[in-house]
Write a structure and sequence with these properties.
It is a single chain. With about 230 residues, the protein is α/β, with parallel strands linked by helices. It has eight helices and seven strands; from the N terminus they run βαβαβαβαβαβααβα. The protein has a seven-stranded parallel β-sheet, sandwiched between helices. Helix 3 packs parallel to helix 4.
Length: about 230
């Protein structure tokens, strides 16, 4: 049975990915800050498929607990670094961005994914696994007010690219899911109606295409992957 670690698994894309993988026969080690939210997810999934470990991914002790769960499973096929911190809502301009908050955004969005990757590299190497670092279009587009989150995701993109160059034995992807109808996206646009955004479940097939088809390491947009899948099946 393949094994995945998914951070930020209690909601949004992380939750949708964990749900899909468990129904496909995977075991998932799931991280989130809310134990109650993880417990609710676990109740919805096939028995025994989810190992829920609540905590803060920036905490070394919590990351060690995730690694211990992987060791207990005896393998690791996929790491999805999905947990992210948006920062202030509404998003402030860089000229007035609180630097202590910016440091926290980088800690969650850049340093924690790298630290967890470092910890899990032996298991990923043994299983010739894949790493999916969830990015954003804000990493490549200069949106007003998105300097904090966007620059953090740009840094994560570059971490992904360099790791891919250093580790050609692994598949390393920066994955841009596009706009989704999530709590984080709503926080980015307080008071606005985001019901026109697609649900996270619609993006999961694009992520799974990376996992199953294993294209060359790189940065991929969900829209492109979904369009390619549609072309293949047409």
């Amino acid at each position: 049975m393949p094994v995945a670690v998914i951070t930020g698994a209690s909601r949004g894309l992380g939750r949708a990915t964990a749900t899909t993988l468990t129904h496909l026969g995977w075991s998932v080690v799931a991280d989130a800050r809310s134990a109650a939210d993880l417990a609710a997810l676990e109740r919805e999934l096939p028995a025994g498929t989810l190992t829920a470990i609540a905590g803060d991914v920036t905490d070394p002790g919590h990351r060690a607990a995730l690694a211990a769960a992987v060791e207990a499973h005896g393998r690791l096929d996929l790491l999805v670094n999905n947990a992210s911190l948006l920062g202030p809502s509404p998003q402030p301009p860089l000229a007035s961005y609180p630097l202590d908050v910016l440091a926290r955004v980088y800690d969650v969005d850049v340093l924690a994914p790298l630290a967890l990757t470092q910890l899990l590299l032996p298991a990923l190497t043994a299983g010739r696994g894949a790493i999916v670092n969830v990015s954003s279009d804000a990493a490549v587009e200069a949106y007003v007010g998105w300097g904090g989150y966007g620059s953090a995701k740009a840094a994560l993109d570059h971490v992904s690219a360099v790791l891919a160059a250093e580790r050609p034995d692994l598949a390393v992807y920066a994955f841009d899911p596009g706009d989704m109808r999530t709590t984080m996206h709503q926080e980015a646009f307080p008071g606005e109606d985001i019901s026109d955004r697609p649900e996270p479940e619609t993006v999961v097939p694009a992520l799974l295409r990376l996992v199953t088809e294993r294209p060359p390491s790189g940065r991929y947009r969900a829209t492109e992957l979904l369009a390619g899948a549609a072309a293949v099946t047409a």
